[in-house]
Amino acid sequence: MKYVVIHIFFIYNENGDTRMMDYKITVRNEEEMMEIAQNIESEKFPNMVICLDGELGSGKTVFVKGFAQALGITEVITSPTFNIVKEYYSGELPLFHMDVYRLKSGCQKFGFKDYYTKGGISIIEWSELICDCLPEERLDIEFKIIDENTRVLKFKPHGKDYEDLCSSTL
Ligand SMILES: Nc1ncnc2c1ncn2[C@@H]1O[C@H](COP(=O)(O)OP(=O)(O)OP(=O)(O)O)[C@@H](O)[C@H]1O
Ligand SMILES: [Mg+2]
Fold first, then answer.
1. Residue 131 lies in a domain
2. Distance 35 CA to ligand 1 centre (A)
3. Quick check: helix, strand or coil at residue 33?
4. Distance CA 86, CA 81 (A)
5. Which atom of ligand 1 lies nearest, measured to the CA of 151?
6. Model-level pTM?
7. I need a surface site. Which of 41, 86, 125, 149 has the fewest CB within 10 A?
8. Domain range for residue 94?
9. Burial level of 154, CB count in 10 A (0-12/13-18/19+)?
10. Ligand 1: does its nearest atom lie under 6 Å from the Cβ of 60?
11. Taking the CB of residue 134, how many other CB atoms lie within 10 A of it?
12. Which ligand is nearest to the CA of 97?
């Protein structure tokens, strides 16, 4: 008689269910980065918040460009570094592209929270600099440069909607 031993590994999150908490993806070029953003866009919902962190030139704005293209936004996406927020209304949902790298005053004064409930999608570059002004439910994506064209993305969903989004797109 033969015995087959099957090992099943469960990874528990803080709610006690078996979803994975983190997802890690290697991105080999700019086109792949755009595709990943397009996959996330395909599961969009109003008031979605995506936080992008990682060193200069790691691909955060490229991700936003891919996302905006999938939304059907016709304007050219450029970094809102000096404006802090750029608003786009020509896509399926409004897109609020924020880059808080050069934010001088405290985030409370800026009114970021108003954007999260306008029915659009907020994507925030350098979100770690405004951690007191982020919603509890959101998708965090950490960008790491490996070499000239390779990036590693780490996705961390906060809240069920974002966990579902990650498990269906990644
Ligand atoms: N796999 C890749 N994914 C994304 N960008 C890549 C990749 N490989 C090379 N690149 C290049 O890296 C650069 C990424 O620039 P990008 O402006 O998106 O960075 P960023 O993270 O937004 O920087 P910053 O913090 O200054 O806003 C681009 O010049 C792009 O062509
Ligand atoms: Mg950028």
1. yes
2. 14
3. helix
4. 9
5. 1
6. 0.90
7. 149
8. 23-169
9. middle
10. yes
11. 20
12. 2
